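Methods: example folding runs. The two proteins below were folded one after another, and each record is reproduced exactly as written to the output file, sequence line first and structure-token line second.
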Amino acid sequence: MNDVRDGSHASSSKGSGSDRLCRQHPKVAGTLPPTGPERVLQVGEGNFLRGFADWMLNRLVRSGRWTGSVVMTPARPPGGPRLEALTRQDGLYTVWTRGLERSAAVDRTEVVSVIGRVLDPFRDWLGYLALAESSSLAIVISNTTERGIFYDPAVDRTRPETLNYPARLTELLHRRFRFADADPAAGLVMMPCELVENNGALLRSMVLQYANAWGLGSAFGHWVEEHNSFVDTLVDRIVPGRPPEAADTVANWGYADDFAVVAEPYRLWAISDDERTMARLPFDRLATEDDDEGDQDVGLGAFFTSRVDWYRERKLRVLNGTHTFLAPLGLLLEMGTVREVVTHERWGGVVRGFLHEVVLPAVGGPAGLGQYADQVWDRFRNPFVDHRLSDITLNALGKFRIRLAPLWRRLPREATRARQALAWSLASQIWLYSEGNPGKVKDAPEIIERVHGHLTSEARGEGLAALLADPELWGEEGLEPDLVGAVQAHWEAIRRGNPDAIARLLG
């Protein structure tokens, strides 16, 4: 457990020829608000939450509308050692916002100071459980990727390092339930930022499933359901990570910052309009929701709404689905960033064709989403943000299953070009996992090994079919049989490095 509120341990640290960012650094000393009470537990240490949720909370503190700080914990064991380095900066880091906002160029930096403490539950389990006894703790925010909210019957309660996020949350809530003697007022608000459907309801169901499996009692289950809020949310902001011009940036800022992130100006956090949550966070409530395009930016970009599912569907298909299509295409063509692909004279038209011929018709057509699609396209072309294709490939097959596979059922059978483009996209996702592409995809080792096992059998003509039928990869429902057949038709050309089929379809 590391407390990052005291800057004494960091003031003499050096980096890249400059003093490291910390509370005593002359660039920020005396300008930062004091650390508030620990109101938020954050599960996940990645670029996104730091450039999105923490940035918003920091803005609330700066505005005087909210007081509090964040206890940051890693989502998985490997994240702990990285977070130790954040203590050398007193939990401070820079968000560099670059791009266009309302047609005006934005180029600004802000030091985020809302992280009060770093805690690694995989090394300090008792310290993690002690959070349950905090009278100030009110909110749990998470981003553990699309594969992070699931029930794992193999976890071992006696070995905290085996517990996934829902299991760790169950233990925390149970400790709080017992410590508070089932006090209704002790309930917490869970705000999952994972991009899965009904993420709040899903997380609650996982907690209740663990509670039942571990025999924690019906009274605890009742307390979880009645006195805690698991709100559905939708998050939308591109936060590609550390500035590529790191050395020049340090010279301009006057300090070294190993945790600086670049973010686009656009941000949107749609939160289901739960009364308990609204009482704890002073975000806006949408007054009207009649516009098909929806609200584009209310204050910080965070707001309460009854239409989280609509915002999620819009973002999941239009932005994320197009990302999933273009990432392997760009890597196949040896490009490195989203902007390279979408601004390419030939291949940019292919990606735009996918957006307008495949995605929009499958999710309601341009009449309701055209303005948002145009916004997304401008965001892809943001000249100030280098969104690496390799970052988009994280859990590539899982993302295709969630983002694009459902579109196959929605497209009419006569939409041959659009359906073939979807099939090409799935074949290209599989290509990322092939042994000839080491490091091109980031996924759980067991998933990569499973895909490799199937593809090793491909020489006998059976591997790809087995992969496409594997319920561990696609769920019990599996893929549509005609989609499977279409993928097999594209696989050989993609494996040979030939993208011409998709150019002919959508060029």
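Second run, written to the same file directly after the first:
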Amino acid sequence: MGTTDRFSRDEVQRILGLSPKQLDYWDRLELVSARKDEGNRFYDFRDLIALRTVKQLIEQGIPANRLRRALAALREKLSQVQAPLTELRVLSDGKDVIVEREGARLEPLTGQFVMNFDTRKLDEEVQVISERSADEWFALALDYEAERANRKTWAEAINAYENALQLDPGRTDALINCGTLYYEQGNFEKASECYRRAIERDTECGLAHSNLGSVLEEMGQLEEARRHLRLAVRLEPHHPDARYNLALICEKLGAFDEAREHWQSYVQLDPSSPWSDYARQRLASSESARSGSRR
């Protein structure tokens, strides 16, 4: 089980309402570039937040080239800041790029302070988006999830996901991520509710079936758990976690032949994982039991 931590170009375009040309242009300007891993190109949640900020600023009238120059100036003036779009609050006054830092706002190209919190009214001088869209709530939830070591942010992440779902009830990604946070908190009822809602929206979502199966196992509902995990491996045959969990449940139910089939598939799909040794042990044990029964 896990939350979404990589986004393809198609997913980014759908979530943020961007076009392929916009992504390519911003990549060329080095505003936000896709990451690479073994030939695959993707964006992570921080990139998603950065892209959302770029989109907002450009919609507020800031040309992309001016934004590029402002970010370059920020990196030069603030050497400790490597990713201004995610590490700082970047805004627009309708004309220039404005950065909020340490209780004041400055214009990056000149380095001049343009506003003091104690003497100017922010709402009158700076254009700030006060109402978030579903996409913005989703991105905010991902930002909170970045601090997974700090469980205090989990409630804020869940709240942000719930706000996104109020605006867009059909977001299976928000339902799955929210369900995973509930699962990690031990709230299996809420987790299963989220996964069931995701399945209602997308009956072909293998991840939702897989995660629901894991939750149902924790709740002792083994037959229903097996049913959903079987659906998960049918929908996504190359998903190793579903195979592993299904093998465990089959053993608990005494379906050892079926368990052996899924252990074998798991080892083939994920041969170097920390859990593959256990899967091999289960296979060896199964083979020994079969040999003994033939004697």
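Comment on the second run: The mean pLDDT is 78.
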